[in-house]
Amino acid sequence: MKYFKYIFLLIPIICLFMLSSCEQKPKETKHYTVKYYVEPGIVFNEIIVEEGTYLEKPDDPVKEGYEFVGWYNYQTKWNFGVDKVERNINLSAFFKVKKYTITFETFGGSFVEPIECEYGKNIVLPTCEKEDFEFDSWVYNNERYMTIRMPDHDITVQAGYRYNSVKWKLNVQNNRIDQYKGTASKIEIPEFYIFGDEIRYINTIQAGCFAENKTLEEIYFPDTITKIEWSAFNSCTNLKKVRLSQNLTEIRGQAFAYCTSLKNIEIPSGVTNIQDFAFMMCTSLEEVIIPSSVEYIVDSAFSYCDNVVFYVALESAPSTWSANWNNQRPVYYNFQE
Q1: CA torsion sign, 285 to 289 to 291 to 292?
Q2: Pairing of β 176-180 and β 186-188
Q3: What would the pLDDT profile of 32-47 be if each residue is shown by its tens digit?
Q4: Which of 83, 167, 213, 292 has the most CB atoms around its CB within 10 Å?
């Protein structure tokens, strides 16, 4: 009877032990590895996270010539903030190749349609035509091309021409145009020209170069031109429009004398000297814009320009200008475009 009493007391202890042994052990937290690849086979970043984690979206990787599309787990795009990590995963950056545009500057030559092309592709470039010139190649970054590999940005290529020796007389040693013998009505002098394998730049229009040309109506100078010599356009009676180089420093005597169809002229801001008879007998001249850089104007520079009005950037005429520089024609000072 005494033993039964002890057994009876042990029963609750045994039950408690059995209940405690039946309690579920805490579940072990699982961890997984996430690897990011920007280039195949090269781990860009590696992290270890708990199972069920929502990944934080990393900064978009940058790859020259490509647009980042997203992170992919094999063929499936990973949705950050939606997809959970439930196993080891590899996320690879997916890129789409970008397209860029080639624009063609022909300097008054035939129009060439822009070309859109994928980054890294080799493009065979078209040719173009220009009156009185012979097309040679396209120039980009001072190099000549007829095939070019597309860089990671839009580009403009410029037409490289050779001067037609029948129509032009060049002084190659001095990069000077000595004579034009063509009949074009509109001329845009290219920014550079090809001589042999070299890219060269015209800087001077020689005396009498276009004198007495009766077909020329418009001419446009590149900013490489620094000198227009005496009588360069004397008696070009049909010349109506001139765009001067922004690096021109002086307009020599009779440079545009007797250009009776010329309507207006804007003197570039680098010009310091307008010499004798520079625009004499430009009887149709209506407007002349003179910048503050001009230090000297002689009284004959605009003689017999009886219809002209002057617009001057200065407050008044400097003492170095001839007293009758404007030949009593109207002048508006403090002009600003």
Answers
A1: positive
A2: unpaired
A3: 999 999 988 888 899 9
A4: 213
